[in-house]
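2024-03-11 09:14:02 DEBUG pipeline.ingest accepted 1 chain
2024-03-11 09:14:02 DEBUG pipeline.ingest length=155
2024-03-11 09:14:03 DEBUG pipeline.predict start
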Amino acid sequence: MKLFLDTEFTDFLDGLDLISIALVSDSGQEFYAELSSFDESACNAFVRSTVLPLLFKSPEAICASKSELRARLEAWFLSFNQDVTIMYDCFTDYALLMDLFGNELPWYARESIAIEKRLDPERLESYFADESVIRHHALHDARGNKFSFINSTRP
């Protein structure tokens, strides 16, 4: 089972910390969570203006701590009853997922694959052309990666 990963985080360069995470399976199941415990002062200007206004719209997605988020995510992973492959377009997303699990993914996450070069840019742009889809929201970005990868004919 392929799981398409995306995250939002405070800053690439200074104080990298997870804000939100999404995974979308190739069969359509979705996981989305936001941390309420991140340090807002560590966010760069782009994150403050673009990402933060998108957060905290779904109370059920809010986690008070990384340990709560990890527990929710682990339960979701286990619901598949099969091994999963983590598909990511940015290594930082994968690194933040690894950090949640103490830098060692659980046994059922058997493989991870960088897919940045396997995304069809035209399909990705057509996905984001829909006005109800919001860039830089982890769930929308993960859905976009799934959409542009699944039907990709690029090697």
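2024-03-11 09:14:41 DEBUG pipeline.report The helical segments are 45-51, 66-78, 91-100, 121-128, 138-150.
2024-03-11 09:14:41 DEBUG pipeline.predict end
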